[in-house]
Design goal:
With 127 residues, this protein is mostly beta strands. It has strands at residues 12-13, 19-24, 36-42, 49-53, 56-63, 65-70, 73-78, 82-85, 91-95, 101-108, 116-122. It contains no helices and 11 strands.
């Protein structure tokens, strides 16, 4: 049995600028998973860097509100929303609310540094 407590996992700034805690990644430990799982946070006014993954990705918003941008399309998101991001899509997310924006990220196949490409600096406002 494997149980992870988010509070015990180290935080770091990911390539897209979000504050991340990696929960599960089969590249880093012997797990029978295809996907990786992480928890991300953006502070109020924060904007992730525009990037793309060669893998598919799902964001499940757990806290706050913001705007998700995928391949030129933008939509409002808030706690409870789930976003599918197709492989190869240019994407970024911005926090438009008064509190933090927190979300779970699922990447399939599992995230590796080679699967991510940062496309440019900050996508707008933020940082």
């Amino acid at each position: 049995m494997l149980i992870r407590d988010l509070r015990d996992l180290p935080e770091f700034v990911a390539g897209d600028g979000t504050v991340l805690r990696e929960i599960l990644n089969p590249a880093k430990e012997p797990l029978a998973l295809r996907y990786s799982l992480a928890h991300a946070v953006l502070p109020p006014g924060g904007v992730s860097l525009r990037h793309r993954l060669s893998a598919s990705e799902v964001y499940h918003i757990t806290e706050g509100e913001g705007t998700m941008h995928i391949d030129g399309e933008s939509r409002a998101v808030r706690a409870g929303a789930t976003v599918y991001i197709p492989p190869g899509s240019a994407q970024h997310i911005e926090n438009r609310g008064p509190g933090r924006l927190a979300f779970i990220c699922i990447v399939d196949p599992a995230w590796t540094p080679a699967c991510e490409q940062v496309l440019e600096g900050p996508a707008g406002g933020g940082r």
